[in-house]
Amino acid sequence: xxxxxGMGLRGRSxxxxxxDACLKETPAAERPLTMLLGPPGSGASEAHSALMEYFGPQxxxxxxxxxxxxxxxxxxxLGLLARQLERKLPRYGRSHFPLLSLGLLASDxxxxxxxxxxxxxxxxxxxxxxxQENEARHGDxxxxxxxxxxxxxxxxxxxxTAALALFQDALRRxxxxxxxxxxxxxxSRLTSGAQWYGRHPMTRSGDPMEALxxxxxxxxxxxxxxxxxxDLVLFSAFLEDLRRNTxxxxxxxxxxxxxxxxHTAYGRRFLDLLLRARHDETVVAGHTSDPLTVVASSNRWLxxxxxxxxxxxxxQLRGPDRASLSDWNAHRPTxxxxxxxxxxxxxxxxxxxxxxxxxxxxxGGHSDLAPLTRLTPFVHRLTGGLPRxxxxxxxxxxxxxxxxxxxxxxxxxxxxxxxxxxxxxEQTATLADTALSHLLxxxxxxxxxxxxxxxxxxxxxxGTRLLSPGDxxxxxxxxxxxxxxxxxxxxxxHPWLRRLLLWRLARRPDAWDTAHELLAEFxxxxxxxxxxxxxxxxxxxxxxxxxxxxxxxxxVPAVQWISEFNAITAAPNRxxxxxxxxxxxxxxxxxxxxxxxDIESVxxxxxxxxxxxxxxxxxxxxxxxxxxxxxxxxxxQLRRNDIVALFNEAExxxxxxxxxxxxxxx
Length: 666
Known about the structure:
The chain has three domains: 13-174 and 187-346, no CATH class; 352-436; 528-665, no CATH class. It has a five-stranded parallel sheet with strand order 2-3-4-1-5, with helices on both faces. It has 29 helices and seven strands. The two termini are 29 Å apart. The chain is mainly alpha-helical.
């Protein structure tokens, strides 16, 4: 089975049921503009593929990727979408887009005329000539748009074989010769379409032919406002064509649009026009709503929503698991604002069970790779469950073939996983390079180096304030959804991104030490000893951290001490990359001769053990759990009272079960 097949919406079933409900609604029902939001690799493209695969055999759908190298003006995007929606399905009649086609044709090539009156007399003859030329070259008029924008009609990244076959079939079935807009019944098609444009509130002339000439003048001689007016009229024509299609017998109730990478300039432009056209038609003019089911995706916070903090936006981000029409209607802003049409869904990371299913599907069918399915907890801890990161790690495991059996050799192999090669098509680069180039697209080397230093701080806002010039870096990272979930109190980099950046920073020992020293000094001045010790431990000062935690052991209740201990020992490290967990731990033994077991010596061992354990690259199989459990047991024997919490923590590590086995909305 190809990666991604049948998995695109696992953990995101609410999206599936939402789209299903939208497609089954009556044509005039109001539908949301669903936005899938998250960092690069959060699974939006995979969701597009899964929706295509699931609904494509039954409903007309169209896909456009706004993230390609070529620019895609709104008119070309409309042409591409309409061309795809024209395909014939067994259950329904064929859809037609005569109004959009006429508007595109009328505004396409510059009409040769000296006055508006002359243009009116010549417009039918010239439009007829334009159409004949296009049909001779491409077979039908809308097919011409494929030449211009075919690069945007690729498949979503990671699409399954089934979705690819379906999409290619849709394009093949769509190729046909279209009846002339101008021929038959003395140009009745042109007359009917031109009358609609003449009645449109945005065209100044009520005369049908002069309205078409006006569209042409806006395109070729108009200012910025007139260019926008033309785009809005074309969107209006597209929506009206859809309404007329659904009004016929044996036609679908709704059409599915899948718009990937809508955060780009052309994607944002398309969404703005679509939203405004829908709002003007439905709310301002009072017409019935259009029958579009739209699922778009964005790796950025859209500027039209205001500040990336979300404070000024009336929408609260929703999770994908419980998405539904009723949820949208219950939370949508009032209809006097265009914001009422959005339905923003923040894609969450995969939980442990979902990662396990992916690994079993991708590796379990290969006898030589099947033993690696036991690495599920490691992959989940390492990647934080980011779908693309999980896929990339599995690709490295499949391509490079680590020792299949759990043991010291496998531990040492996994220790350097970020530096392992990853083949992607014709290119090969390390896992870290490949992942960072995708997550931090458009960041130059200098910015990435600064970002790695800022990643030393768990609180990313503190890191950028101390270690980067200005606040632009923090704002850019937040707008790209690269911080943890929307409800996090402390802004923390996504664990996968932070881990890779710290892996890079560890290659610059001086920069690593400087960053952690500055952060420790900052927190010392703030009177926040837990955070200070976190950075002291990152700098390798295990004795200072041990002394602090030994004092705290008798000053605070055991539950609080455990909480502080866990927070401190989650600190990142730059320990040697060639050793497994036991060898790393051996290098952290106290330099003084062994003494009688006392609280300080037990805490020192516990600090170093859990510090190594906290890094999935340092202890991939969590072999140090039993040693941590033994340390807590020893502490409970050395403490006179309040020992239940210590016993419980010992049991938790001895019978470790990841707390994220079942996922929420994140």
